[in-house]
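@channel sequence for tomorrow's demo:
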Amino acid sequence: MTTRRFKMLDAILFVILLLIGYGCSVKNKFSIINFAHLYNHAEKPLITGLKIFHESDSNSRVYVRYKPSSLHYVLKMGRSYYRADYSISYRLFSSYESAAIVDSSTFKMFDSLYFQNDLSLVYNFPIKTLPDNNYVVEIKFSDSNRGIDSYYSQEINRKDANNSQHFLLVDQQDEVIFEEWVSWKTKFRIITPKTNLTKLFVDYYDDVFPAARTPFSLSHSPVYQLKPKEKYILEINDGITDYLQYGREGFFHFRSDSMTKDGFTIFRFHDDYPEIKESELMPGPMRYITTDPEYAMLAASKEPQTIVEKFWIEVAGNERRGFQLLENYYDLVKDANLFFTSYKEGWKTDRGMIYMIFGAPTEVFKKSEIETWIYGDPQKRTRLHFDFIQNKNPFTTNDFELVRQPDYKNPYFVAVDYLRR
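structure tokens (generated this afternoon):
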């Protein structure tokens, strides 16, 4: 009798352990995924763009842009060509914190045509989504030949009926535009599944915004009371507009309902964006690494490029190294613009400022409305943590504000001093 009871207890314990193990195995991995590769060009991210488009009341389409040049092509025995084997998988969750998988699938692919080709490819697939629901989709891009998995995430907003995911920008070749900005050369159209929609209300703004405050500044965040410089109506027929092209700088906010702020925004920055090539724009990003007198001199100069070059040559001690430091710094500016553009240029944002001063973070973790960056060796106690909180912004979902602390002052100036060596 005793032996049987112990056997029953063992069986119950075994079942409990199985259930615990199963619960751990299906736990949402968002909380432990390190997304640092998203902000590190040295790691050659496999995916260079993600876009969500709600094409009906029950389906959303995911567009994935990637570069074949980041894949590993292999010449196998008996084969006369190089081939890359890879897959794109997705898992759909109700939030970053949710453990329940709403939907999932894997798409296996191979390529032998684009070996050593630097072009971009786009793959798209539908997922089932319901109105009045929000989701997060986890995308896994797997390079089978290299045995590497890279993870990406994108929030899906179905609760706001007029947000940007109900509209899609395409160029003259009907290629999807993944960025939220266009150049003066870009001709594009706006597509929506709302075929009964006949007009869009457009507000044009030409406001210029300042660079981010230092991470140790405890002054209040600026509050902007924006008023459009111009308002007009854009006609839309059968779910598509005529071709548009914007020469003037500023941003254009589109709404299908004039009584709400919900809509989408197209930004038109300077001509060479995300790069900085115009001499008069060069002093701006220097604000983070210069003293007040140095920056005043740079900003007031009638020959900004010359004086910026002189600054770096004096910092470096010789011309060759000075130009290398200058190039490195403006590469950071370009990357910040690529990664963190919101209602203003990426280098002006809080994340852009931290990225330019401290470089690419060691670890990046995401939760709903918060992104955490960590710098330093996980085995050491001297690590820097930065938390960025997502702001409610009618113009963009990419507006994150740093939680500032006085303790950041010393590491900030140490990093600035390092950049100036």
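heads up for whoever presents: The chain has six helices and 17 strands.
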